[in-house]
Write a structure and sequence with these properties.
Blueprint lengths: L12 E4 L8 E8 L4 E4 L4 E6 L8 E6 L1 E3 L3 E5 L4 E3 L1 E6 L2 E6 L9
Length: about 110
């Protein structure tokens, strides 16, 4: 999927709607559009063993794994609800809008 459509962007606040971390709210750290996955802060934490290199000792580190974009929804913290994303062209510029209220998400 080279040209995958993804309505979630980096630094968006999202809520997990499916999986073991259902209900958690976090900030999107990275978007992987070709794989249709996102990395969310504090969600899907995994442990990885770090091999010692040079003068740095080995360790077990915890980091966030990616989750499928279909398992997250944009979160509106002001109204405490999920947001369905639509698109609109305003002044020749394509922006994301809240489909329920018509308010601009990007600003």
């Amino acid at each position: 999927m080279a040209n995958a459509k993804c309505r979630i962007k980096a630094d968006d606040t999202v809520v997990v709607i499916a999986g073991k971390d259902k209900g958690k709210v976090g900030r999107v750290l990275r978007v992987l559009p070709t794989e249709r996955r996102v990395v969310v802060d504090g969600v899907a934490r995994v442990k990885r063993h770090q091999r010692p290199t040079g003068d740095q000792p080995g360790a077990i580190i915890e980091k966030e794994a990616s989750i499928d974009v279909s398992n997250v929804a944009l979160w509106n913290a002001d109204e405490n609800r999920r947001v369905k994303v639509g698109y609109s062209v305003v002044e020749g510029k394509k922006i994301r809008i809240d489909r329920a209220t018509g308010a601009a998400i990007d600003g």
